[in-house]
C-alpha cells in the first residue's frame, strides 16, 4: 500500500538559505530511491524558510528504508543547527471508495 507523507519544516532565523540547500540535496538523493514515487519540495509563499515536503512512497518498507539512507541521517544530524521548530510529519494512505 502506498504511503503519502507531508512534512512541514521551518528554518531557524538566519538559516533559511542553508536549510534550503540541504533540503534540495535531499530531494535529489531521495528521487533516486527505488521506492520513491514522488518527492516534492515547496517553500511557503511569503514565508521564506518555511518548507513543505509532499512525498509518495511505494510502501511502508520503502519509507523505512528511506529513513535509513545517508542523506536522511545527515539531515537528522544537522537539523538542530538548521531548524527553528520541530519537523511536523503527517503520514497517511489514500482514501477511495
From TrEMBL:
GO molecular function: monooxygenase activity
ABM domain segment(s): 3-94
Signal peptide interval: none
Source taxon at top rank: Bacteria
Record key words, sorted: Monooxygenase, Oxidoreductase
Family matches, as PANTHER family: ABM DOMAIN-CONTAINING PROTEIN, QUINOL MONOOXYGENASE YGIN-RELATED
Protein name, per record: Quinol monooxygenase YgiN
Organism of derivation: Chitinophaga skermanii
Amino acid at each position: 500500500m502506498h504511503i503519502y507523507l507531508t512534512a512541514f519544516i521551518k528554518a531557524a532565523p538566519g538559516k533559511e538559505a542553508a536549510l534550503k540547500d540541504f533540503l534540495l540535496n535531499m530531494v535529489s538523493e531521495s528521487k533516486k530511491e527505488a521506492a520513491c514515487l514522488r518527492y516534492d519540495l515547496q517553500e511557503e509563499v511569503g514565508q521564506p524558510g518555511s518548507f513543505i515536503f509532499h512525498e509518495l512512497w511505494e510502501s511502508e518498507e520503502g519509507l523505512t528504508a528511506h529513513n535509513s539512507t545517508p542523506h536522511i541521517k545527515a539531515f537528522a544530524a544537522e537539523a538542530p543547527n538548521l531548524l527553528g521548530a520541530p519537523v511536523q510529519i503527517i503520514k497517511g494512505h489514500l482514501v477511495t471508495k
